[in-house]
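To whoever picks this up:

The parser on our side crashed when reading a file containing two proteins. I've narrowed it down to the boundary between the first structure block and the second sequence. Both blocks are reproduced below exactly, byte for byte. First block:
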Amino acid sequence: MLSERRLQVLRAIVQDYVGTEEPVGSKALTERHGLGVSPATVRNDMAALEDEGFIAQPHTSAGRIPTDKGYRLFVDKLAEVKPLTAPERRAIQNFLDGAVDLDDVVTRTVRLLAQLTRQVAVVQYPSLTRSTVRHVELLSLAPARVMLVLITDTGRVEQRMVDCPAPFGEASLADLRARLNSRIAGRRFSDVPQLVQDLPEAFEAEDRGTVHVVLSTLLETLVEETEERLVIGGTANLTRFGHDFPLTIRPVLEALEEQVVLLKLLGEAKDSGMTVRIGHENAHEGLNSTSVVSVGYGSGGEAVAKLGVVGPTRMDYPGTMGAVRAVARYVGQILAES
């Protein structure tokens, strides 16, 4: 365990390096931070931190920079996440309140996160598997053609065309719509198959084939693999940090293009707390020079998806974590009210 003073020295090195982009020397630390000890003592502390792998010396400089291990300890020991100012909070609320539907919410959230953090923003659409049914609408388009519209508690809308094996009258359609909603509205998607399995038996024999087809389409919609959708924004922000990536920015950009990689980075939505992955903690090699800050968002205190940012390891962690958490909270409120 590091002593409190060495932790203070490490904290000062991280803050200075993030702010100045320059390796940090003992003299600068003593002048800028009220550490209450001599430069010689600070040099000893820095030597100890280097021996333990928390800081390192770039070849070209007498100063030191934090390592992944150093950033990790800094984040783990953060006393508090930097709160947003009142104008920042108002700006978030005003920007997100103007959203007209779920797609607009997600698009605005990505833009907002990228602007606030000046990093790459990633927002996952609410997952159907963690959602509940708000309403099912059935619309007759032709005697044997129906549109099925599924609306979730997160405002997600899925539409499917259903070709019926025989003409299906308006009265039967209204009956099916009413019976469906009475059984599954407000229920988790995982419960739906069991709740509707005996529904065809409530209809006349000539209508059961159509009821089966409608239910099959509904159940397919609930389990479709295409549900895990992501939106990414602010990739151009990475160009400001060219020197933070040892060789080239290309591996980072290539990794960001792979949706599977990003989903793994964000992690499971059920782990809704703040997650910070630093440098080599990211399994994908192309992202070994980046940090990922993510958190779950949702309505009613339950996470239905994740959002976060990707940037260089030389990141303002307190500020980034504060922004990510605040945006997630506002998005959750919007979903709850939608």
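<<boundary where parser fails>>
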Amino acid sequence: MSMTQQAEPAVTTPPASGPKETDGRTAQRSTALRLLARPEVGVFLGALAVLVFFLITAPPMRDAGSMANILYQSSTIGIMALPVALLMIGGEFDLSSGVAVIASALTAAMITYQLSMNVWAGVLLALAMSLAVGFLNGWLLVRTGLPSFLITLGTFLILQGVNLAVTKLVTGNVATDDISDMDGFSQAKAVFASSFDVGGVEVKITVVWWLVFAALATWVLLRTRYGNWIFAVGGNKDSARAVGVPVTFTKISLFMLVGFGAWFVGMHQLFAFNTVQSGEGVGQELIYIAAAVIGGCLLTGGAGSAIGPVFGAFMFGMVQQGIVYAGWNPDWFKAFLGVMLLGATLINLWVSRAATRR
């Protein structure tokens, strides 16, 4: 029923025939509000503004090679930001995602080198470990009812300590051994850390994987029953359970998706650099969460998209590299990220209120 029909009083006589007068403003406003209500619109406009800003202030960014480098930096953030965003839409978040990336890479590297196994054996065992960590986080959440903040904070501290202690115990160092001469390394590198030429510009394979995962996540959210479950449990899990949504399965599987993302990014880091530093990853979880929030995902759950975090990660990549290309002090990077996060949060709040205002 349209707004005009709702405003008409009940009458027993039919309305007069003839065309209705309209100036088009109502339909135009309705379209604009529907567009503003999309969670990714604000971050798209923000990313466009940041791009224009750095194209003006940092001339090296106009080079195609520089843009390929920005896309690469964005993809390493964006691949993890996608499952983190889905988890946030489902009403939870994961503070262990940053160190989980390193834990996965360390597992694959040490199994491969110390046990003299084929690289793919280490890759698959690292995948099993990452999924197990995600399952444990989700299982503890649904079994105890504790906030995901507390559970994943505990996992973060455990993994941080285990990463360093086990690596030093096994290798005698804080980093893993070089695995570039192990069986299967070249094939795994082709999947996780290769590059290809596009018009004379080298593009990393992670950019392709990033876009593929984003398209898949968008399809899942908008076209599948599982996507409806994610929004339902994030909005109100009790109401979702009452209408038959498998809340336990959905929550646990979302944490396992974060584990899969951590595994994939961990494999990229391992095969891109041949070795892994055990102390890395601390603080990256905040980058992933911030990219999702900038992309329009609410901390309270029940709202968001997969496209928004893509633009959020792209903004991070532009700022990270744009500061370097502009010749500024890179110490300002985190300050820029803080401004972006606060700005995006305020914009999302304004957009949400504007879209619901009558």
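After patching the parser it read the second block fine. The first helix runs from residue 3 to 7. Residues 1-28 have pLDDT under 50 and may be disordered.
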